[in-house]
Amino acid sequence: MKVKEIMSGPVIRIHDKENVAVAARTLTHYNIGALPVCGSDGKLCGVLTDRDIVTRCMAAGKNPETTAVREIMTGQVLSVEPETDAGVAAHLMGRRQVRRLPVVEAGKVCGMLSLGDLACREESAYDAMDALSDITGNITEY
User: Fold this and answer.
1) What span, in angstroms and rounded, lies between the C-alpha atoms of 93 and 112?
2) How many whole angstroms separate alpha carbon 24 and alpha carbon 58?
3) Which of 42, 111, 121, 139 could form an SS bridge with 9, CB 3.0 to 4.6 Å?
4) Roughly how many angstroms between the first and final C-alpha of the chain, as a whole number?
5) What are the sequence ranges of the domains in the chain?
6) How would residue 128 be classed by pLDDT, with cut points 50, 70 and 90?
7) Rounded to two decimals, what is the model's pTM?
8) Cβ atoms within 10 A of the Cβ of 121, count?
9) What is the pLDDT of residues 80-119, one digit of tens each?
10) Nearest 10 degrees: CA dihedral of 32, 37, 43, 46?
11) Is there a contact between 91 and 98 (Cβ–Cβ < 8 Å)?
12) Does the domain formed by 3-136 have CATH 3.40.50.80?
């Protein structure tokens, strides 16, 4: 099974120059935990999570109204292409300890793959379980 068959889309994204308060409201409005961050050229340049907002902005004493997303986002982002095998993507997620993975085609985000997307499909449920086990450090017996 390919990533394109199970990824979520369309993708809600944010511009790297937008402020953190707008990002937080966007996460809340769409009830999501991560936003791909795109530059002026529309290409992926980072990911911003709700945890980034708490740890890198709020806990650091920064003002979310005046802090740009690019200042607190995770810049080195693991991504996959739509044609990537779902099992390979799950393995990468576990190894890099990420729960969400941008799906990129020609440098632009075309979807997001989450552990939940993998877990909801019978064909990839074990891959999701393995990835979650790697992320949390738990040993899972089948």
Assistant:
1) 12
2) 11
3) 111
4) 21
5) 3-136
6) low
7) 0.81
8) 14
9) 999 999 989 988 988 888 889 999 999 899 999 988 888 7
10) -110
11) no
12) no
Please tell me the distance from the alpha carbon of residue 2 to that of residue 6, in angstroms, as a whole number: 7
**What residues contact 91, with CB distance under 8 A and at least 6 apart?**
127, 130, 131
Please list the residues that pair with 112 across neighbouring strands. Answer: 8, 102
Catalogue the long-range contacts made by 76-83 (C-beta closer than 8 Å, 24 or more residues apart): 77/36, 77/44, 77/45, 77/46, 77/47, 77/102, 79/44, 79/103, 79/104, 79/109, 80/3, 80/104, 80/113, 81/3, 81/105, 82/2, 82/3, 82/4, 82/7, 82/110, 82/111, 83/2, 83/3, 83/4
In degrees and rounded to multiples of 5, residue 8 shows phi and psi of -95, 145
